Amino acid sequence: MGEQPGLDGPGLVTWYRDSHRRLVDTLAGAAPDTECFTFLPGPSSALAFWARRQAHETTVHRFDAESARGGAPAPVATEFAVDGVDELLRGFHARRGSRVRTDRPRVLRVRATDADAVWTAHLSQEPPVTTRDASGVAECELTGTAQELYLALWNRLPLPALSGDPELAALWRETSAVV
C-alpha cells in the first residue's frame, strides 16, 4: 500500500484520482480467473468482489466528502443501494467480528419502500443471520428508500421510519460500526 501521501488540497485530490485510476485499471485488466483474497461472501469472481467492495467503499466516503463540503450529496441509485444493504447485512454483519449482539434472540427487519427488497436480521449472542425475506414477526422494522437505508445502516444518516421497539434500532446504531 505504501506510505501515506502527506498531501492536502489539490495535491491530495490528484493523488486520490491517480490511485483510483490505478485500481480501476488493475481490476479491468486482470484475467477473469485471477485469484485474490476476499473476506465476505459475494460475487462469484474475486475481481467482481473487489469491484463491488470498492464501489460501496467509495460511495459511502463520497457521501462523507460531499456532506462535509455542504449542499446536497449526489444520490445513490436504488439497485446499487439495495446491493450495499445486502453486502452490509449479509456480508459484514454475518462475520464473527460483528458487534451487533443481543442477550436473547431478537428480530430486526429492514424494508426498502422503493424496491422489492426486505431483509430479516435474526440477532442473538452470535453474529446476526440475515435473510432476504419478510418471514416471521419482527420486533422492530426500519423502512425507507433503499438510499436512506443504505446510508442510515452505514451510520451516515438518521434511521428512517421505525416501527416497533426503538431500543432494537438504538442497538444497531450503537454496535454496528464495521471494524
How many beta-strand runs? Answer: 5
The SSE order reads: HHHEEEEHEH
Q: What separation lies between the terminal Cα atoms?
A: 19 Å
Task: Give the biggest beta sheet.
Answer: 5 strands, mixed
The oligomeric state of the chains shown is single chain
Highest-level CATH class of the largest domain: Alpha Beta
In CATH, the architecture of the largest domain is: 2-Layer Sandwich
Calculate the mean pLDDT score and round it: 90
Dominant shape: globular
Beta-strand level of the residues, as a percent range?
5-15%
Number of helices: 5
Structural class, from helix and strand content? alpha+beta
- Biggest sheet, spatial arrangement of strands: 3-2-1-4-5
The helix fraction, in percent, is: 40-55%
Question: Could you give me the name of the CATH homologous superfamily of the largest domain?
Answer: SCP2 sterol-binding domain
**Poorly predicted regions:** none
Specify Rg, calculated over alpha carbons.
Answer: 18 Å
Number of structurally distinct domains: 2
CATH topology term of the largest domain: Nonspecific Lipid-transfer Protein, Chain A
